[in-house]
């Protein structure tokens, strides 16, 4: 009875763990009204390296008293030109100007601002800009949403007019520059938007002069600010490629001496350009527009250093790190893909010659030293991604040659990790390196997530704040190696226990991984948690052996759907401003705008598929597995037959990685990251299994299936009769330490073996004594011993 309901119980357990992880959210108090007036001051191109007490004394004092952060100025166009930045500010969503522009550049024509009445202004191009964003771009932004949410708004300067223009092009009150006395103008409406100029010079002296001029204008704004007002200063855009992080400062009641953050970033000290519009409305106590902003209202958090110079150094350092990450990341993944492809090509002849031949002729065996070196190279390749993540603990980006420093640190960490695996207990076992590498990878990524995912942000193998896509939790690459490491660790542990306990072990370890991935406090990746739930379910149902039947696949599918539906129900019950990505998508489907999200996801999948070097990793790994490892001479099928829990872990990894990549717009990136760990370990384990394909199994007295243990799950760690650590313990012709086994043809039932007396002649394990005429007697036939079903299937 328990055996029949076990799949249902395990499915329920996985669903409960998944929904619990996704439903729990950090407390998000609704932003309270803090001001009667809001002044948004934009300086295109302003970065934290432009701010100091001498050049920009006004901004320095404002940062001393207020809250500061790094601003990501992502828009619907890259780079974010000044006109794109102003338009995105006013839309509260990623927007772009539709004027003609050179490739990778900014529109050449200036924005046309008409003043027919001397009070307000009109933008004649606004209606075409709205249509362009609504019909041609995947974000569905509505320029002018911010000004439509207040009764009256003021714009000073042409850039501010772009942000303040309503969807039909009208600016309520407009001045091309600050008047001699800005006080009446800034106090005439609850929302004022001021263009303070641009900092776009390449030379330090030019930038310093432009920053000084903008700071002088800011001093006039602060002197004329209305009472009980919030002033937000933002480096509104880039001015050239590549993108950088920019200045964000908030000064007003309730914004004293803290870090700026928002629910869209989930990390202290980071803000997005799309967060400014909802921040202004929240500070004024105004309701959000019917079509929600893409951004979230910013808040001020504590923990900022008392020394302003030290506090400003943090966002400035983040900008330098993000810039260095962009330069190094592409080269790193291209080299990683190249190295793994070369390893795949090098291992093909080893697979062909790894299996011993009993006949008089056959391929010359490969030297044990060569095989040992190749095994270490495979271990090093599998540890490269976690080593690159750990390298971010060293400030390599501050050096004169950051790329070389990163390469050196990563190489040292790879060498240290490889040595730790090599000298770890159990390395000689067939699955020893697999368990060690998987456990080490899971430990590195898991500890980083548990401590705030500090190594993920702006890391070479993490996510970049410049991209504006993710700021907290697991990155795509981190998720790929973590789910692969967690499932492989679960399979390695499950292989060492009784067959009946294997599904429970897979669910226990995999369920913890689902919690780590999906919890908003940790991995903050609901899509990844849903995909991992499907992978864990697949792994659990086949971990004890057998095929992935339709019914088992149905259980796994039901588990993933149940987690997704359960989280969707919980998310939809939250207030609209607090919903996650899944709740927002379902809400968009309800109001007929879900097509934008589907279009964005499909576009991101295609762009990632054709541009990412991780696609090469995924395809190269798949080709090696399909055309080599899964062939009769490749060894992987034999590995699957002897170690069903490992087969289950690999199957679950493929399901989770493919599903997560498709749902998250990452295409094959997730599969490529997982393949960077899984494929080298599968190749290594296949080599070791092939090295013992001709081995025969030594019988163990007093052992039978009657004790409830499977032939491949005993405590000894010596293969089918000694545990889950190898077909015969590990090593043998490939350099590990296997006992020399003996075996005969398979029989339908175990054969009772009677031990001969110590002085009995003809013991098969003793060398034959020569006869009187010097000849050797005929050898005694080996004793007949039954083999386990998994061993028979594998052979």
The total strand number stands at: 12
Q: Tell me the major beta sheet.
A: 8 strands, mixed
User: Which bin fits the share of residues in helices?
Assistant: 40-55%
* Silhouette: elongated
Order of strands across the biggest sheet?
A: 6-4-7-1-8-9-2-11
| Quaternary class | single chain
Q: Number of helical runs?
A: 25
Strand content of the residues, in percent?
5-15%
Low-confidence stretches: 699-795
Outline:
The chain is of the alpha/beta class and 795 residues long. It contains 25 helices and twelve strands.
Description:
This protein has 795 residues and is of the alpha/beta class. It is elongated and about 100 Å long. The model is unreliable at 699-795 (pLDDT under 50). Helix content is 48%, strand content 7%.
Which helices and strands, and how do they pair?
Blueprint: H1 2-23, E1 37-44, H2 57-65, E2 67-72, H3 82-91, E3 121-122, H4 126-135, H5 145-148, E4 153-156, H6 158-164, E5 170-171, E6 173-175, H7 183-186, E7 191-198, H8 204-224, E8 229-234, E9 246-251, E10 259-262, E11 270-272, H9 276-284, E12 298-301, H10 308-354, H11 368-382, H12 384-390, H13 402-422, H14 432-450, H15 476-495, H16 502-518, H17 526-542, H18 550-572, H19 581-590, H20 594-611, H21 613-629, H22 636-642, H23 644-663, H24 669-690, H25 789-794
List keywords for this structure.
elongated, eight-stranded mixed beta sheet, alpha/beta, 25 helices, 7% strand
